[in-house]
Amino acid sequence: MKYKHARIYDALALLTAIIVLILDQWTKAWVVTNLYPPDFGPRISLIDDYLILFYIKNNGAAFSLLANNVILVLLIAVAIGVISYLYLRTLNTASLWYKLIFGLIIGGALGNLIDRMRHSGYVIDFISFRIPQANFYFAIFNIADAAISIGVFLLFVTLLFGGLHQSGKIPPKTQPGQEATPAHPTTTGSEVLQSSKEHDAQT
User: Does pTM surpass 0.85?
Assistant: First the structure.
């Protein structure tokens, strides 16, 4: 039964990755069609001046980091290796929560990887979050970036609080103020009968 549940969790992780991938590719295709050309195309305001859609080409990693940098290739390779290793370790095991987190990360990674293969190394970004009053302008990103970031954040929090929870547990044998209960030998029926006879003889 446990193995069956694990297989279902793996299937849900795959479904999560597929949903993220489809949503990411569909939104990017819509952006290219409706917000072309990049950098100079129309802009769509979703929430006043705080959340805006417009099309740019990103040659870097998530949130335009390390643009045109050879280190980016190494980081992507290392990240893919680590993600693959962690997921293989949880194959047929781990909880549904972990599976869904890996689904988010893998789906987002595949979305941006497809972009780089299709567009000669760049990805399509189009979501801009800003707070003009505070002169805050967050890096422009896409659905894949958001899925990866949310997945990594949830994984970090889960591992952190899971580790703290485990380290805070005190084994029952070492709890302060408690002494180990001495083990009592099991008394058999013949021993009880013999003890009763000796007691009757004494009386």
Answer: no
